[in-house]
What we know:
This protein is an alpha/beta fold and 330 residues long. Helices cover 52% and strands 14% of the residues.
Amino acid sequence: MKNKRLPVIIATVKNTIKKYGLLQKHETILIGVSGGPDSVCLLHILNSLKQDLKLKLHAVHIDHTLRADSNQDLKYVQNLCNRLKIPLKSVRINVRSLAQKGSLEETARNVRLDFFFKTAKAINANAVALGHNLDDQAETVLMRILRGSGLAGLSGILPKRNILGFQVIRPLIEVKRKEIEAFLKKRRIKARIDSTNNEDIYFRNRIRHNLLPLLEKEYSSNIKELLANMAESVALDYNYLAQAAEKIAKKSTTRFSLDKLSSLHPALKRLIFRSAIAHLKGDTRRLTFQHIREIEDLLLNRPSGSIVNLPRNVCARKKKNYLEFYLKIR
C-alpha cells in the first residue's frame, strides 16, 4: 500500500510510525480508548493499517468516575470495539477517593498508566498507543514554558517513550486536532465529548481556549506547528545529552562519586540527578528547578551526612565520597 493512495491523515500517521520507529510488523498493540475524538480516531486509523502492518490490536478503557455520565463512555467504547471486532479490557475506579491527599490529575494519570501497563503485560503487548495530537503537543510545550521548564519539559510529548519498561507511542502526534475532527465528520463517526474540556478552571484549557488563539491571531498563525517543531528539536538535543550522561553514570543508577560529579559540566550533572530520581520513581514529575539547585548546593556547600528532601519521598544524601538518592520510608 502506497502513501499516495491513503487519506492524508492516515498517510501522516503511517509516516510518523516509520519516522520514529513506533511500530514493527506482527506486533501486539494496546490502544488507550477514552471514547473522545482523539482516541476514537487513533483506533480507526490503526485498525485501517493493521493488515498492512500486520498488527494485532487490543483496546483498553478506564472509567475514572469523575463525571456523572462517565459510564456512557464505556458503553460507547464497548459498542465501537464490538463493531471493529477489537478485544477490549476495561475497569471502573473511583479516582477522586484515591486522590484525597494529592493531585486529582496526577492520581488519575498514575491509575490510568498502571492499568494500561498491567493490561499490556497480560496480553503481551509490545506498545501502548495513546491519542495525543499536534495541538496537545503545542499546549504542553506552552504550559511548560510558562512553568519555567528545562530541556526535558520543552521536549514536550515524545512520539515514543519508555515508561517503567513499557513503550508508550503517540501515532497522532503530527496530526492537528482539526484534521482529526474532519476525519471523524467525513466518516460520520460521533465521538464522546468530555464536558470538562470546556471548563477554564484548568490550566491547559485556559491555554487552549484563550492563550493559543490569541497567539495565532496576533503573533503567528502557525504557532502550534512552531511549538511542535521546537519540541522535536529540543527532544533531539536532550536525547543526545541524556545518552552522554548515561554513559558517564554507567552501571551506577542512584550512587555517584563526588570526584566524578565535580568534574562534569553542570548540564550533565543535572541530567544524572534527574536520571537517578526517574530510576526510583519512574519519572521526574513535580521536580522543579529549585530542587535541582538544592542538590547542587548540597554538593558544593553542605557537610557530609546532609540530606535534601525531594518530592514524592525521594531524598538526596551527601556522604564522604559519594552522593546517593534513595526513597524515604514513611
